[in-house]
Design brief:
Elements lengths: L2 E5 L2 H7 L7 E5 L13 E5 L19 E3 L17 E3 L6 H16 L2 H9 L15 E5 L3 H12 L3 E6 L8 E3 L3 H4 L5 E4 L13 H6 L5 E4 L8 H9 L4 E4 L19 E3 L10 H18 L6 E3 L4
Parallel strand pairs: 1-2, 1-3, 3-4, 4-5, 6-7, 6-9, 7-8, 9-10, 10-11, 11-12
Antiparallel strand pairs: 5-13
Helix pairs in contact: 1-8, 2-4
The structure holds NADP nicotinamide-adenine-dinucleotide phosphate.
The site of NADP nicotinamide-adenine-dinucleotide phosphate has 32 residues, from α4 and β7.
Length: about 300
């Protein structure tokens, strides 16, 4: 009898190759339907990405050794992964798609694309000049894998980038979050791309938002609760700040939520990370993790080490 490895795509199964020598067989579980009934022999489970049935089967795998998440954020999985099981995340796989949407939101907001789309719908030639990204000072708060990918795109866009992480990395010109309050008054735009943790929840509250200059733009592609929704609404309703949000609190945003209609607020429905660029890289990464597991090698991207 061999142990089972579940991967979400046939491509990952093929790329993983023959791992029967390690006593493993690889099967596809897409997450489109509920998981198979008998999951007792599953030792490696890849949580399908953004599918209706993704984490539910976790509670039915008593011999699980590895959970491979396909999201970079994993706060929602920590309590669902059985004790002793290794959890690895998808750090790196969402960099291109998430950085690309952050750039798109910055450009759309600075060049007022939503306004021109509305004017086009009404056949109105509304000739007026706008802000630009070039020449703007952009704070990236949560300067990790995605932040660095955004930085590369912003440099091409001739923006000035200021980097902020939890701890300072002077060699990379990264400031500590302790410097945030001093940096906020100097920013034309701030991009939030931190994980959701006890330290980042509500990091952007009314006090911090008040430190931003009039007209500044707040972009959130990290997690909704990092930005206090009521505090943001107070600032956008008055027209003092603008926002471009891929993530909100709550999510999904209810149809009658005031954020939808608040002036200067552009919303995308948490679609940054899952664009086309994610899938080929993710399929290869999952296969490589399975091969490492079969060879008894250390896995990449371990965020919670297991003990079995
Ligand atoms: N919208 C989407 O579709 C989408 C897609 C992918 C990811 N995300 C979100 O983006 C997050 C970041 O992903 P990533 O792959 O770039 O993660 P990462 O490489 O681990 O980087 C996260 C960065 O956040 C910093 N950080 C942590 N706590 C902080 C705090 N209290 N204040 C300031 N900075 C803090 C870390 O600083 P240190 O280096 O000093 O620890 C690190 O530099 C994910 O956790 C997820 O929530 C969203």
């Amino acid at each position: 009898m061999s142990d089972r490895v579940l991967v979400p795509w046939q491509e990952s199964r093929e790329l993983a190759g023959d791992v029967s020598g390690a006593g493993l067989r690889v099967e596809v579980f897409s997450g489109d339907e509920p998981g198979p009934e008998d999951l007792k022999d599953v030792v490696f489970y890849t949580v399908p990405y953004d599918r209706p049935h993704n984490s539910e089967p976790l509670g039915r795998m008593p011999n699980l050794r590895v959970v491979q998440a396909l999201t970079a954020g994993y706060e929602h999985l920590v309590d669902q992964v059985p004790a002793g099981t290794t959890l690895a995340n998808a750090r790196g796989l969402h960099d291109s798609s998430t950085a690309e949407l952050a750039l798109a939101l910055l450009l759309a907001a600075q060049r007022e694309l939503p306004r021109w789309v509305r004017a086009q719908e009404e056949h109105r030639w509304e000739h007026e000049h706008t802000r630009s990204l070039a020449g703007s000072r952009v704070l990236i708060v949560g300067y990790g894998s995605i932040g660095a990918a955004l930085d590369r795109r912003l440099v091409t866009g001739e923006a000035e980038v200021v980097r902020v992480a939890r701890t300072a990395r002077p060699a990379d010109d990264v400031h500590a979050v302790a410097d945030l309050d001093a940096l906020l008054p100097t920013a034309d735009a701030v991009v939030l791309v931190t994980p959701l943790t006890e330290q980042t929840r509500g990091l952007f509250d009314s006090r911090r938002l008040a430190l931003l200059p009039d007209g500044a733009l707040v972009v959130n592609v990290g997690r909704g609760p990092v930005l206090d929704t009521s505090a943001l609404l107070a600032e956008t309703s008055s027209g003092r700040l603008r926002a471009a949000l891929d993530v909100t609190d709550p999510e999904p945003l209810p149809a009658d939520h005031p954020l939808w209609d608040s002036p200067g607020v552009l919303i995308t429905p948490h679609v940054a990370g899952g664009a086309a660029a994610f899938y080929p890289a993710a399929a290869r990464f999952v296969a490589a993790q399975v091969r490492r597991f079969a060879a008894g090698e250390p896995l990449e991207n371990v965020v919670v080490p297991g003990d079995r």
